[in-house]
Amino acid sequence: MKIAVIGADGQLGSDICVAFRKNRDEVAALTHSVMELSSAASVTEALAAANPDFIVNTAAMHHVDKCQADPERALQTNAIGARNVAAWAQQAGVPVVYISTDYVFDGKKGSPYVETDAANPLNAYGISKLAAERFTATTADRHFVVRVSAIYGHHPCRAKGGLNFVELMLKLARERGEVRVVGEEFVTPTPTAQIAAQLVVLSRSNSYGLYHATAEGSCSWYEFAREIFDATGTQVRLEKASAAEFQAKVPRPSYSVLENDALKAAQMNVYTHWREGLHTYLGERAQQATAATVAG
To answer: Is 149:221 a contact under the CB 8 Å cutoff?
Structure first.
């Protein structure tokens, strides 16, 4: 198959390209330099040139604060952009995946969200992503909407200054020797490599619809940091902070754990527990560091 990956140079998009190439698929890696999502003409030109059999749309305006400051741009990029991609997919008769977020929920449920739970985003980013979900679902018959949470991978996350949570924690530990992390917000940390593997499975399915796609289990950000430091043998003073101490400018859900009900019902779930995913990531990170040292 020929797979078009939109946002191919992003943290998630990079691993998606790797996963499909390992699966011996041909990948058309589409970046912002060749496609402006908010322009239907630009989307049409880029996708027509790629001529894919399957489309994965990871591109979005991810920075929550910037979305809140400019909601019109967030809607144009995220929602209208998703509609433009879905419209081309529908016309071409090819399936499309839209990557969405746990931020479509308000966090008030207090137990893992399933696909049938009502969405209620708290901020402009979540609103734009929910609108994108709806546009994708109502525009393209052959669609997958895939919600992910607290992702991290080996490729830089440009929206977060190039550092994912794991790398940020290790950097702060080196520089400060003491780290304070919120203990009242709960997520499911999920490696981008596992999301990419899940998308390869979905690409071979015609069970279209909405899917939650995160690692198993859940933890607070504090517990995630504790596991990072323990697994790497990092000597650091880790303290639990209250949410009020790091009061965000934009409201965010304090509980955004997702349960992969639909994937499990379809017997397509590939995810391991979040701790196993973290240990795999750290092992790969150590191997990359060793290889770089040898090459240097």
So the answer is: no
pLDDT at 60 (0 to 100): 87
Q: Write down the pLDDT at residue 273.
A: 97
Residues of the chain with pLDDT under 50: none
Structure tokens at 177: 């020797």
Instruction: Give the span between the Cα atoms of 76 and 293, in whole angstroms.
Output: 44
Cβ pair 57, 96 in contact under 8 A: yes
- Phi then psi dihedrals of residue 202, to 5 deg: -65, -35
> Can you give 39-54 as a three-state secondary structure string?
CHHHHHHHHHHHCCCE
List of residues 6+ apart from 79 with CB closer than 8 A? 128, 129, 131, 132, 135
**Which H/E stretch holds residue 223?**
helix 221-232
DSSP state of 29: E
Beta strands in the chain (DSSP E): 2-6, 26-30, 54-57, 96-101, 143-148, 151-152, 178-182, 186-187, 190-191, 209-212, 219-220, 237-241
Cα(129)–Cα(75) distance, integer angstroms: 8
> Which pLDDT score, from 0 to 100, does residue 128 have?
95
Look at residue 287 in the predicted model and tell me its pLDDT.
Answer: 82
Mean pLDDT of the residues in the chain? 92
All structural domains of the chain: 2-295 (3.40.50.720)
User: Which pLDDT belongs to residue 159?
Assistant: 62
Predicted TM-score (pTM) of this structure: 0.93
